[in-house]
């Protein structure tokens, strides 16, 4: 019997949790750096899905192909699930590594704003159920998100990536593997949302 993509999604989340538990420690943050790893992988997966939602949405508007409209809608919803759930992971990383919640941090405030707007937008688009509107909204959403974040100040998010600039091969390889697993989870969630689309 063929398993639902949602089942594979949950199983992948379980594997991600196990892998994260055995992530390499860091000299100053110790084992708590694992929260930073998962937080980083989560937001990258969210952005990848939202970017693909915009790309497929743009292609759908050009070609008027139903398949692309469906993929854009599914990717947009999947991306928002990861975007919204990345926020508590961000808070957890703050609390465990810096002993407090810096809620005024610019990039966190922007992430929260886009989460609220994104939830309302995706819910409205689902209710309206007009594929061209969804595709166009996904294009505008990711363009706006990327533009706003490219101009946001860095405080607790040192650019461009302390992990890839660490020079520690085992940390980089681990983080890449974690990202691949998170992208796999995003794929399964997207496939599930796709299965909910009308034929």
Please give a quick description of this structure.
By secondary structure, the protein is mostly helical.
What do you see in this structure?
- There is one protein chain.
- The protein is mostly helical.
- The protein has one domain (31-195).
- Helix content is 76%, strand content 0%.
- The mean pLDDT is 86.
Largest sheet: none
Spell out the helices and strands N to C: HHHHHH
The percent range for helix content is: over 70%
According to DSSP, the number of beta strands is 0
Class by alpha and beta content: mainly alpha
Number of domains: 1
Strand content: under 5%
Number of helices: 6
Unreliable segments of 5+ consecutive residues: none
Distance between the termini: 22 Å
Approximate shape: globular
Average per-residue pLDDT, rounded, comes to 86
């Amino acid at each position: 019997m063929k398993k639902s993509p949602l089942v594979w999604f949950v199983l992948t989340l379980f594997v991600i949790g196990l892998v994260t538990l055995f992530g390499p420690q860091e000299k100053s943050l110790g084992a708590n750096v694992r929260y930073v790893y998962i937080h980083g992988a989560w937001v990258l997966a969210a952005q990848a899905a939202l970017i693909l939602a915009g790309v497929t949405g743009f292609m759908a508007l050009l070609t008027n192909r139903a398949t692309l409209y469906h993929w854009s809608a599914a990717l947009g919803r999947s991306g928002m699930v990861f975007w919204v759930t990345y926020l508590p992971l961000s808070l957890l990383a703050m609390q465990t590594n810096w002993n407090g919640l810096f809620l005024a941090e610019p990039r966190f405030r922007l992430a929260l704003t886009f989460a609220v707007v994104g939830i309302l937008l995706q819910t409205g688009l689902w209710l309206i159920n007009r594929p061209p509107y969804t595709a166009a909204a996904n294009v505008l959403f990711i363009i706006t998100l990327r533009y706003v974040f490219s101009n946001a100040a860095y405080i607790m998010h040192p650019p461009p990536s302390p992990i890839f600039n660490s020079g520690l091969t085992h940390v980089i390889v681990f983080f890449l593997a974690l990202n691949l697993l998170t992208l796999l989870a995003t794929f399964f969630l997207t496939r599930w949302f796709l299965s909910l689309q009308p034929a």
